[in-house]
């Protein structure tokens, strides 16, 4: 009769270890899916934001608003990304947008060009983080 309690304890321990291993595997898959989702969202946000800039180069007020909105979306996406490299790339691009000067038409034109350059650089970083 003493064998039954030991067997029950052994089986319970094996089930617990198996369950924990399964949870770890599920968490790993979940993290991978989270990163994939964050990468999709990051690429989408960068595309949406950067597509607005060229058409607003002659309008400093609207360009400034688009840069601020874009930076906010990038920061929001960075906050949700589980990957540090991806977070840093998104935050870096957001910071680059926030530093641009759009006080007049000339600076807005320069800023639109700089935003395109910054976007290309950080998009490369984002893609590297996602591969």
From TrEMBL:
<keyword id="KW-0732">Signal</keyword>
<protein>
    <submittedName>
        <fullName>Uncharacterized protein</fullName>
    </submittedName>
</protein>
<feature type="signal peptide">
    <location>
        <begin position="1"/>
        <end position="22"/>
    </location>
</feature>
